[in-house]
Amino acid sequence: MTSYVARRLLQAVPLLFGVLTLVFIFMHVAPGDPTALYMRPDVDPAVLEQMRRNWGLDQPLYIQYFRWIASFLTGDFGFSLTQNRPVSDILLERVPNTLILSGTSLLLIFAIGIAIGIVQAVRQYSTMDNVLTVGALFIYSMPSFWLGLMLILIFAYKVHQLDWWPEFLKFPASGVTSTNYDLFGAGQKLGDRIRHLVLPSIALGVSSAASVARYMRSSMLEVIRQDYIRTARAKGVPERSVILKHALKNALLPIITLLGLYLPFLFSGAVLVEYVFSWPGMGRTIVDAIYQRDYPTVMATSFIFAALVVVANLIADILYALVDPRIRYE
Amino acid sequence: MSEAVLRIENLRTYFHSTDGPVRAVDGVSFELRPGETLGIVGESGCGKSITCLSVLRLIDPPGRIEPGSAIWLRDRNLMNEPEAALRQVRGNQVSMIFQEPLSSLNPVWTIGEQIAEAVRLHRKAGSAEARARAVEMLRLVGIPDPEQSVNSYPHQFSGGMRQRAMIAMALACDPAVLLADEPTTALDVTIQAQILELLANLQRTLGMAMIFVSHDLGVIAEIADRVIVMYAGQVVERGTTDELFRDPKHPYTEGLLRSIPRVTQKLRRLAVIPGSVPSPRSWPPACRFHPRCPYAWERCRSEAPPLAAHERAGRCWLDSEPERRVAGAWDALGGREAQA
Q1: Distances from the Cα of A79 to the Cαs of A1, A25, A282, A288, B137, in angstroms?
Q2: Could you say which of A2, A273, B144, B218 would form a disulfide bridge with A204 (CB–CB 3.0 to 4.6 Å)?
Q3: pTM of the predicted structure, to 2 decimals
Q4: Cβ–Cβ under 8 Å, residues A156 and A173
Q5: How many whole angstroms separate alpha carbon B211 and alpha carbon B156?
Q6: What burial letters (b/e) apply to A227-264, b meaning 16+ CB within 10 Å?
Q7: Cα(A251)–Cα(A249) distance, rounded to whole angstroms?
Q8: What pLDDT, in 10s, does the model give residues A20-49?
């Protein structure tokens, strides 16, 4: 297993390099450069020229590329051209926020998706199954940024106009913490963070949860037709554990594959949702950095995204082996 | 005659679809006495497996055991028992083994866990005790190195070992009745013989009664004390194995016996029963076998023959008009088939 993981990580190296090279090329092919921010009538073009020289942007592209690769390999992500601080500082601040948001969403996606899928399969063609099918399709068709805006409109704004609406079902519209966060006790701090997570993680996860539910339903329906389910019933196993023990573990196998597939999807969704909810994560960072042509920040953030996707797929493959004894990694 | 451990009366299992009921099992009655082996023979689609599943009341919708059917397990009619009571019967008093040992075992749980589960459920045993029982059962069915094998997964076992594991699972709670639904069909011949011997031995030592379903008359001859022959959802003949093989009453049984290949037979075309089992959606009227029967005459097409209540009986009009059983009828039928 260890050698398998090591081999997979090694295989990821050329992949990551490919991703970074492409991002580098696209960024430099796009018109404009970081000095664009300073292009104002009162700034002498000679100053801009000097800035370009200082940042090495006057060099041929391949020299810039190799310089950047060289510093990257030594673990130096460079210096943000717009925020005037090391990119590694920015990442340390932003990466955890994105991981918390995506992690919560991922949990939500699979917990809710799997639960709904099971219910639908067990009650196939019932009213509940039909309602959930239509509901899932409806939710699946909604773009996350629009859903985010609607959630804000309803749960952070409209409900404040309703006297009877319970306080704990009103949620903050933006940010990771409240402005008076530092004054809170430890328990209150955790509660505050969770309350801020609710709307963005729902906006980010709910459509994927709907599609996981679709997959889970069909996977479960496939499994409960199998002979070994009949064997379990013939053994006198109660229906509940026929489903949750004998069927579930088998039905989860194809769902684990989705884990690896959904993470990149989740990250691209995070870019939009973080914007809508002013969530200071990597998604917002990379969008801002792209607009400002902040090359080092874009490169570093892309690298982190790509690395997370590689790791997520690896985790999915390892989980697969844990659930299915027939799979062995040599 | 000792009291029957299992008595089926007028079992009718229909599958209800929009174009009418599919009468898979249509009025089957038989009884099983303690310690005996009852063979059920018939081609595919005759209702043998559905009969077994019905005994455990494991018929899923749209299938339904029709009212009026009775499944007597000693003095309880399982038709009147609630689901919770049925669960106490399944795997405990009545167990079942299936045709395909690989697909019948759950691929993601260990063999040991799958055996121990039944013990925990029915014996209220702790996990250590249940596991010990699993090891004991694996040893009993002849799995080598049971202490290790108990942790194996089904895919690590060969076909014969999987069926042994299935048997261990079924017998873990000392059932009074074992339903064996073609347990040797998917195995190759040498393994088949081993499994048959194992089942026969276990039956003797554990004193259980067994229903052995097969389409293979050779296998039935080896293991069964009494046999019922099923055709088109009905019992068409019953008797002891001896009687049935020596002197079949029903032309269908006759046909089945004729189609066993014999080594001594010189190069001759293998005898077959022409045609195939009709669709359970529309059984032929009157005698259900008449379209394939070499002796059929007007009466067979207009009037359904009854099955006498005797120990030895055949559902055929030949019983009352034996002179119509003419020699050579089968060969003439074969010729007709060949010309067609």
Answers
A1: 38, 19, 16, 15, 69
A2: A273
A3: 0.82
A4: yes
A5: 29
A6: bbbbbbbbbbbeeeebbebbbbbbbbbebbebbbebbb
A7: 6
A8: 889 888 888 888 888 877 888 888 888 888
CB B307 within 8 Å of CB B235: yes
Tokens 């019922």, residue located: B228
Q: Is B192 on the interface with A (CB under 8 A)?
A: no
- Give the Å distances, CA to CA, from B169 to A103, A159, B242: 42, 58, 32
- Regions of chain B short of the pLDDT cut 70: 1-2, 263-270, 333-340
Could you give the ipTM of this predicted complex?
0.86
Kind and range of the H or E run holding A282 = helix A282-291
| Residue A249 to residue B109, Cβ atoms within 8 A | yes
Nearest 5°: the CA angle B63, B65, B68 is 155
In three-state secondary structure terms, B40 is strand
CATH topology of domain A95-323: MetI-like fold (1.10.3720)
Q: How far apart are CA B195 and CA B209, in angstroms?
A: 17
- Is there a contact between B167 and B125 (Cβ–Cβ < 8 Å)? no
Domain ranges, ordered by start, for chain A: 95-323
Quote the CA–CA distance of B52 and B39 in Å, as a whole number.
12
B58 and A230 within 8 Å at the Cβ level: the answer is: yes
Q: In terms of C-beta density within 10 A (0-12 exposed, 13-18 middle, 19 or more buried), how is residue B86 classed?
A: middle
* Residue B241 and residue B227 in contact, taking contact as beta carbons nearer than 8 Å: yes
Contact A227 B103 (CB under 8 A): yes
Contact B217, B41 (CB under 8 A): yes
Q: Cβ of B89 and A323 within 8 Å?
A: no
